[in-house]
Amino acid sequence: MQTSEAHETRPTLAQVARAAGVSEITASRALRGGARVARDTLERVQEAARRLNYVPNRLAGALAGGQSRQVAVVLPSLSNSVFADVLKGLETRLEQAGHHLILGVSNYDPQREERLIAELLTWRPAGLVLAPANSTELTRQRLATADLPVAEIMDIDRPAIDLSVGLSHRGAGRAMAHYLLGRGYRRLAYLGHDITTDPRAVARRQGFEDGLAEAGVALEAALLMPGPSSVTLGSQGTARLLGGCPPGGLAVYCSNDDVAVGAFFHALSQGLSVPGDLALAGFNGLAIGQALPQPLTTIESRRERIGEHAAAGLLARMRGETVQPVDDVGFRLITGATA
Amino acid sequence: MQTSEAHETRPTLAQVARAAGVSEITASRALRGGARVARDTLERVQEAARRLNYVPNRLAGALAGGQSRQVAVVLPSLSNSVFADVLKGLETRLEQAGHHLILGVSNYDPQREERLIAELLTWRPAGLVLAPANSTELTRQRLATADLPVAEIMDIDRPAIDLSVGLSHRGAGRAMAHYLLGRGYRRLAYLGHDITTDPRAVARRQGFEDGLAEAGVALEAALLMPGPSSVTLGSQGTARLLGGCPPGGLAVYCSNDDVAVGAFFHALSQGLSVPGDLALAGFNGLAIGQALPQPLTTIESRRERIGEHAAAGLLARMRGETVQPVDDVGFRLITGATA
DNA sequence: GTGAAAGCGCTAACAT
DNA sequence: ATGTTAGCGCTTTCAC
Fold first, then answer.
1. Domain limits of chain B?
2. In chain A, fewer beta carbons within 10 Å around the N or the C end?
3. Do B70-167+303-330 and B169-300 share a fold?
4. Does domain B5-56 have CATH number 1.10.260.40?
């Protein structure tokens, strides 16, 4: 601590104990639930703590106790509302249970992800949540030997280090292929963002092509636009796509709802009818897609639930319980009106 | 990982020191920058640390050193992409500087905010960022005496506890009033979400009415919808509003872009021309508004920059520098095409 | 440039 | 039900 002269240092447990006329450890017990403490002792200690404005020092507590009540969370991005939703689910549940989040953002960069995890582990978190961004082998290895519960989220297609909470993006892609085929579409195209960094988008596309292949159908066109997904990218991408691939019974599967909404706007501004001239499907089930004049055909991804389940899984593991390694939160097709 | 039986305890600094044949303190110095350490000693220690897979324990480091390198962040919501943007700015800058975020979400509940801050302070963060949700007096008082740098963000209209980074929402509201008046609109209405919990939205509305009053104009109608802002709320609200307040030269100032986008969708589905029948303005400058077939008339709020400036301000204060108490990041009118 | 001693504020083990 | 002792793993003095 700096020696701030006039500034009386924060009260410590020792001072609370003295004020209450008990030993440090008794004060400690009293302030944590009060098991094995006499009723009036408990009250005296709490009263003293309140009077002194005592704020426990959990750095010291965690160091002495060997457990930290912080949970590290590493996400690839915050620009995408998808991860904000997951984060919300995580925060809600963990806060309820008296844990706090330390947050890192990898920007879909595996190297950065690796560094970030190493950094966050220095705080000796009680658990770690990771939405992987093509994690390096080193990262996986480190986490496997780090001796803390790890929840990998979003995706359950890949083998998990420890716990896995999410949905099968591959399955979601296939489901949409089947649905569009069922609706009678035979001219199918794919429009995506810079997919090389986003493993989930890759999985959906593969699932989609698999689903088509099962019916002997192939993509008529596929366009990958550079950069992260966005509505603008969707509009511009659609314009380019339709250049080599005229509308009229064409169905475009977009890498996610943002892109699909952009595609919808493009159709709107060009006077193309949806789904007549151009059918559209996305992924995520974002509110914006459902609020369009025509609700978007898409797949709901239950992001907040993923966060909640991941939190619950970690908490259970912290309590020493055995937890099923894979938690599939599923997905739901929203039929919408754009395909 | 599950119970690794042969689980040798994590290496400590002492072990690294021993392996390198130096004292603990020398190892400590070597691993932090290496000031006052001989060149080859430094290399030996780093090499030993690498070999042992040493992960420093910052709980211990912070406890001993009296400073934590964690920064607490309390936001009212994550559902709104606005705060995700701010968070991103914060994370980027703080991570760069070797700090980490502990996150709490208040849900616009002052009581919860109060509890959350108390909780987060137990980790002895080096600083705190707060996007206030009608903070209680107790909260303000505690922060004022907590002896750590505090950055209140979003809003600079109210007196700051310590640092204040954001823009004048009141000013933004006024600016929009002046702009709409300048465009010739005389029939003005307001459409908002449940504003009682969102102090910034309140300030914008007041500024808007002030701006109108300066020209002797009054609101023709104001409608507050229950619940948090959303596109759907915007659509439904517009439908209701137009019931008692027919279109035709009417301009609606929406509490934010989400609501305005909803209003736009409503107009679209009703065949109302924008801005002819119905002019629309929002606040935030979200990407979705600018990606509409007609870009939204709105005010850009520079959220990421707010996060970055808040981080920079805190970092400066941590270095002991004096910092100007109010940092106005300003705003920018986006004229758009909906008004 | 390096080290010895002392302690940060708390809790886990053992007492009693 | 309460207290004593001994650390947790690191960094801050202050020596040399």
1. 5-56, 70-167+303-330, 169-300
2. N
3. yes
4. yes
Q: For strand D, is any atom closer than 7 Å to the CB of A44?
A: no
What is the arithmetic mean of pLDDT over B334-338? Answer: 98
Could you tell me which CATH number the domain at A169-300 has?
3.40.50.2300
Closest CA to A11 of A38, A44, A49: A49
Question: What string of H, E and C letters represents the secondary structure of chain A?
Answer: CCCCCCCCCCCCHHHHHHHHCCCHHHHHHHHCCCCCCCHHHHHHHHHHHHHHCCCCCHHHHHHHHCCCCEEEEEECCCCCHHHHHHHHHHHHHHHHCCCEEEEEECCCCHHHHHHHHHHHHCCCCCEEEECCCCCCHHHHHHHHHCCCCEEEEEECCCCCCCEEEEECHHHHHHHHHHHHHHCCCCEEEEEECCHHHCHHHHHHHHHHHHHHHHCCCCCCEEEECCCCCCHHHHHHHHHHHHHCCCCCCEEEEECCHHHHHHHHHHHHHHCCCCCCCEEEECCECCHHHHHCCCCCEEEECCHHHHHHHHHHHHHHHHCCCCCCCEEECCCEEECCCCC
Written as six digits, the tokens of B211 are 């701006």
Check CB contact of B50 with chain A, cutoff 8 Å: no
What CA–CA distance (Å, rounded) separates B280 from B297? 7
The CA–CA distances, whole Å, from A325 to A151, A161, B147 equal 9, 9, 44
- pLDDT at position A83: 97
The structural architecture, per CATH, of the domain A70-167+303-330 is 3-Layer(aba) Sandwich (3.40)
pTM over 0.90: yes
Q: Identify the pLDDT of residue B6.
A: 41
Residues forming a β-bridge with A298:
A334
In this model, does residue B3 exceed pLDDT 60? no
Taking the Cβ of residue B71 and every Cβ of chain A, the question of whether any pair is shorter than 8 Å is answered with no
Nearest CA to CA, how far is A210 from chain B (Å)? Answer: 32
Give me A282's structure tokens: 């996305």
Would you call A70 an interface residue with chain B, using a CB distance cutoff of 8 Å? Answer: yes
Residue with tokens 């095409």: B337
B70 contacts A123? CB cut-off 8 A: yes
Nucleotide nearest to B64 (CA to C1'): C8
What's the pLDDT tens digit per position in A85-136?
999 999 999 999 999 999 999 999 999 999 999 999 999 999 999 999 889 9
